[in-house]
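fyi for ur records
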Amino acid sequence: MMNKILVIDDEEHMCWALEKGLRQEGYQVITATRGKQGLELLRNETPSLVILDLKMPEMDGLEVLIKAKDLLPNLPVIMITAHGTIDTAIEAMKLGATDYITKPFDLDELKLVVKQAIMVSHLQEEVSFLRSELNKRYGRIVGNSQAIQDVCTLIERVADSNATVLITGESGTGKEVSALSIHQLSSRREKPFVPINCAALPESLLESELFGHEKGAFTGAVARKLGRFELANHGTLFLDEVTEMPLSMQVKLLRVLQERQFERVGGTESIKVDVRVIAATNRDPLESIRNGTFREDLYYRLNVLPIHLPPLRERKEDISLLVMHFLEKFNPSHNQFISPDAMGLLLSYEWPGNIRELQNVVERAVILSQGHEIKSHHLPKEIQRTPTSKTEEQQELIINFPDQGISFEDVEKELILKAMEKSNGNQTKAAQLLGITRSALLYRAQKYQLKL
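which gave:
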């Protein structure tokens, strides 16, 4: 697309000269000799850049600049000024002008200033677009349950700290969404959010992805490459599935976290970075430490600010909200709704894949339903299946409910202790008896200060 430049200058010969010179560079140029005329063209033509003379009759350049910025806040404006009005040009910069050039000026100099201003403007537009796409991709935290509200409160508290965060939770619970929320609430929000999945790359590639490499560092390294740490400088680096990282890479990561510097693969120069690290795992990191696949010192270095995300089956009161959220996402026209029977099936399902599975189910249903109503038969077979009745091995739970009532927390604590007693202290077995994950069991034990 050809960039359009608006020249506003009361000297006709200046307008003619600039139009001729800029057209030679491939720009489309429109001109105005009065401020009001220029503002009218601004409204109708929406140029990519404005070249504005500071000294004009009727309406001077500063007044035109203020009104132009009201119309198009991100519009780059280059001021033309004489030597005696440089102070005024600096005032124009404070009011939002991109740059200024003094008369008499060389046309090639102006062309360079114009080229740089348009390039910066395009980069800013690209950053805004990518941020918008990032939000669309990862979404936002949705839910009114106490469990998710506690998570949101914790995210707000840790956001402005520079300390590392370790997010735990099953696959699909929203760990990356939470990491992005921390970044967006922090003072680093204007800087990059750079994610990397530590389980998706072999060790040789993972080192190059994290730290970059020099030209000739290995076969195929035909040019220097910046790693994720450099790309995330002054921003946030998100290390997903960090417990899957090879042990040799864990040592190198620990060093970077401690020293805040590293060398590219094949390089000798130490590169210092200012990066906030957020890590996540769907495994129990303590279990990984016991298995010898995760370093204990790295765990404690990452686990400065821990956040645990509950599985969807433990926050079923949020399912309806999430369904509405995904319906809006996949059908912005708001002309689809879900039948009570279908919603009932969604509420009774256990969601082993958590929020990610729910999102996929809603997207599928939106595509399959031809009308406005999503019905039960639009859902996957495993969700349509009627829950089976109790087997002979299952026994009805009997609770003696006292007249004066009972504390739900006391009941939950008692169940945890009974499960641990039944399993002879085996946390994994106790979690299975309670129908929850081991991570959820440890989370509840910590919450109630129980020693397992």
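The radius of gyration is 30 Å. thats all i got for now
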